[in-house]
Amino acid sequence: MPELPDVEGFRRVLVAHGQGRRITGVKVADAGVLRGVSARRLRSELVGHRFVAPERHGKWLIARTDAPVVLLHFGMTGALVPGTSDDPPHPHDRVVFILDEGDLRFRDQRKLQGIRLADEAEVKRVLAGQGPDALAVGREEFEQSLSRRRGRIKAALLDQSLIAGLGNLLADEVLWRARVHPACPVGELDGARLRWLYTQMRHVLQASVRVGCVPGRPSWLTGERYEEDPHCPRCGNPLCTGRVAGRGTVWCPRCQPRRS
DNA sequence: CGGCGTGTTCAGAA
DNA sequence: CTTCTGAACACGCC
Predict the structure, then answer these.
(1) Which ranges of chain A does DSSP label H, i.e. alpha helix?
(2) Is A3 considered catalytic here?
(3) Which of A59, A122, A195, A250 could bridge A118 with an S-S bond, Cβ 3.0-4.6 Å?
(4) Spatial distance between the Cα atoms of A10 and A54, rounded to a whole number of angstroms
């Protein structure tokens, strides 16, 4: 699931169900998601404290409390799910934050990323490796960081140290909307093209953030990419699939020609 | 059994 | 120095 819009959705879950609540327990069902912190320390540092307003940067969820900070990264399959003590545990509920009312579950099938406990210095260290948030970055900064870049445009969009928040689905979606081939060298895109790319990125992000996930709409590339015989929602041409920047990539050979 | 995936990181190569 | 590739992590579904 998790790209920027999904993590923004998890942030809202935390606002609705965690903010202002006191942590009364931390149940660690699988310590495999704990990064650099033991179950015992996670529990002892958090119990008794309250979640305050959470933040998000790129795909990182910054769950502040009145004492330490919980940093969550959801990898490819993670989610933050609200629950109650009546809800049966899901087999992939790796950590449950029990609150004075309800609970919050870190659910994750693949355990590719996980949970860290941090002080403000550690938060800074983690975020230092991240570029500006894709939803907050300005047009000028976007164009400038890309114009200094070589290599393929899709690789650049996926590079979290350049722009933080886009994942594989959103990168394909943005490029499709902007009519740019995913393997196009960044250097071949002129200023007008980069500006257009920025505009389309904002469209895709805003529409996705509104619904709290990357939508599988029929009018979007995401709605077609898992069909057995995918066609371009815009022109009806059969879509191409291949590997770009080491990731499965879908594009329309007609809307996104190699040269533009 | 082999391949793949909405992610990140590392080593080694170009 | 930058960028790319493949492997690794871990799990479930073809």
Answers:
(1) 4-17, 39-46, 120-128, 139-147, 153-158, 168-178, 191-211
(2) yes
(3) A122
(4) 10
Token readout for A225 is: 């990419």
Per-residue tokens: A224: 């077609």
DSSP per residue, A171-185: HHHHHHHHT--TT-B
Nearest CA among A20, A23, A60, A22 for reference residue A43? A23
User: How does DSSP classify residue A76?
Assistant: T
A185 is a catalytic site residue? no
Classify residue A245 by its DSSP letter.
T
Query: pTM to 2 decimals?
Result: 0.96
In chain C, which nucleotides are within 7 Å of a protein Cβ? Answer: 2-7, 9-12
Nucleotide at minimal C1' distance from the A170 CA: B6
Q: How far is CA A57 from CA A5, A63, A129, A130, in A?
A: 11, 11, 11, 8
- Which one, of A130, A115, A189, lies nearest residue A162 by Cα? A130
β-strand pairing of A103-108 with A78-83? antiparallel
Query: Per-block average pLDDT, block size 10, for chain A (260 residues)?
Result: 95 98 97 96 98 98 96 96 95 97 97 96 94 97 96 96 97 97 96 97 97 90 90 95 94 89
Q: Is residue A139 a contact partner of residue A169, using CB atoms and an 8 Å limit?
A: no
Name the nearest CA neighbour of A205 among A149, A166, A244.
Answer: A166
Residue A245, CB, less than 7 Å from strand C? yes
